[in-house]
TrEMBL record:
Residue span(s) of domain ATPase F1/V1/A1 complex alpha/beta subunit nucleotide-binding: 132-351
The keyword Transmembrane is assigned to this record: no
Coiled-coil intervals: none
One Pfam family cited in the UniProt record for this chain: ATP-synt_VA_C
Superkingdom classification of source: Bacteria
Domain ATPase F1/V1/A1 complex alpha/beta subunit N-terminal positions: 11-73
Name of the featured protein: V-type ATP synthase beta chain
PROSITE patterns: ATPASE_ALPHA_BETA
Length: 459
């Protein structure tokens, strides 16, 4: 039952305090109206203390007067209407269309907070998603139903990588009709949003993408709702329309900063670097919505992108993200300065579920061994480069010189590719074998002899 209150205790910025309330729920949506009914704002209950509550307004400051406002409690949480018509559409952070395509009409509305998935009903992620980017597909393979974040830094081309993944991603063992992408842009500038929209439109994938865009100048509270709206849309497409959905969210750092700002306005006790103590549970509530459910054909795969402040991987945001997710893809500033695109640093990157979604029956029988060998060889390249800087490249052994040559070719041919270059998994693996031919046979020690004979022609 809707309830309306005419007396407010206090207004401070975008927070409203009320008392003498009856049966108000945490997370309940409220409408804040002016007495003349000309102005209306949305808000949400963010704190309850006996018969008192604090409401966070989705908008700018309301001023300080408590006499020209009334608050109507809706008796339901934040919900959005969803149907399969959301594909090809663009919405704001609260799920309202901003593409002049009209409203979404549906008999059902869905709580943006989602529903918890029973761990016993989760299905173990299998089968890889091909991104067309060699470094990801071969060395840190994205598995359907996985949550695999991208750790980047300010000024690095993570937006370009995200757009390329959206354009090229596909599941090889299914037809393209049941594959969809939900893209959430959190706290982005208008030119960044335009870049994503034009990129998807020009590549012809816009009809398979549902976009949720929260601009940097939008209300701070909307920044906290945007990823939840996107994930709710993904869950609908996966579990009601039986689609395999890839969710890309950028930038999680903007979400965490908004969480810190709202927490500060609530006067909560801060934790590490001023972030609230519940940052871990808030991030987990987002990330854990990815997965697969037994008996349902659809799946939700999540790639959250976050920019590490000062490139610090021990910062609370990437640190906590690493605990929750199943690996990470690290974007390197050093590789970017060398002109490598995408500048993915393969050594600190990993996919913990990769081993269960590659190999015979999934990608190719040589994939696990080849991936292990490329990792090991590139790791030795770093050691040899450090040695060459000390004693000089002329004084290292012939084998070490071949190793340095392998490192240069690996970065130039394997890691580097054009933004519109879409490599199949076969092309990527074949390229890996071509690079291994640079090395002497004694250095190729992580590959089954039968595979060495088949792909390198060695006995």
């Amino acid at each position: 039952m809707k309830k309306e209150y005419l007396t407010l205790d206090r207004i401070e910025g975008s927070l409203i305090e009320l008392s003498n309330l009856h049966k108000v729920s945490f997370g309940e949506v409220v409408k804040i109206k002016s007495n003349d009914e000309k102005q209306e704002e949305l808000g949400q209950v963010i704190k309850i203390d006996e018969d008192k509550a604090v409401v966070q307004v989705f908008g700018n400051n309301l001023g300080v007067s408590t006499r020209n406002r009334k608050v109507e409690f809706s008796a339901h949480p934040f919900e959005i209407p969803l149907s399969k018509d959301i594909l090809g559409r663009v919405f704001n952070g609260t799920g309202s269309p901003i593409d002049k395509g009209g409203a979404i009409y549906s008999k059902e509305v869905y709580n943006v907070n989602g529903r918890p998935i029973n761990p016993a009903s989760r299905e173990y992620p299998r089968n890889f998603i091909q991104t067309g980017i060699s470094s990801i597909d071969a060395l840190m393979t994205l598995i359907r139903g996985q949550k695999l974040p991208i750790f980047s830094g300010s000024g690095l081309p993570h937006n370009e990588v995200a757009a390329q993944i959206v354009r090229q991603a596909k599941i090889s063992d299914t037809n393209g009709d049941n594959f969809a992408i939900v893209f959430a842009a959190i706290g982005v500038k208008h030119d960044e949003a335009d870049f994503f929209r034009e990129s998807f439109k020009n590549s012809g994938v816009i009809d398979k993408v549902a976009m949720y865009i929260n601009f940097a100048d939008d209300p701070i509270m909307e920044r906290l709702i945007a990823p939840k709206c996107a994930l709710t849309a993904a869950e609908y497409l996966a579990y009601h329309e039986n689609k395999h959905v890839l969710v890309i969210m950028t930038d999680i750092t903007a979400y965490a900063e908004a969480l810190r700002e709202v927490s500060s306005s609530r006067e909560e006790v801060p934790s590490r670097k001023g972030y609230p103590g519940h940052l871990y549970s808030d991030l987990a509530a987002l990330y854990e919505r990815a997965g697969m459910i037994k008996g349902i054909d659809g799946s939700v795969t999540l790639i959250p992108i976050l920019t590490m402040p000062n490139d610090d991987i021990t910062h609370p945001i990437p640190d906590l993200t690493g605990y929750i997710t199943e690996g990470q893809i690290v974007v390197s500033r050093d590789l970017s300065s060398k002109g490598v695109y995408p500048p993915i640093d393969v050594l600190p990157s990993l996919s913990r579920l990769m081993k269960d979604g590659i190999g015979e029956g999934y990608t190719r029988e040589d994939h696990p061994d080849l991936s292990s060998q490329l990792f090991a060889s590139y790791s030795k390249v770093q050691e040899t480069r450090a040695l060459a800087q000390i004693i000089g490249e002329d004084d290292i052994s012939d084998d070490d010189k071949l190793l340095l040559q392998f490192g240069e070719e690996f970065e130039k041919k394997f890691l580097t590719q054009e933004q519109n270059e879409n490599r199949s998994i076969e092309d990527t693996l074949n390229l890996g074998w071509e690079l291994l031919k640079i090395l002497p046979s004694t250095m190729i020690d992580r590959i089954d002899p039968k595979l060495k004979q088949k792909y390198l022609g060695e006995e």
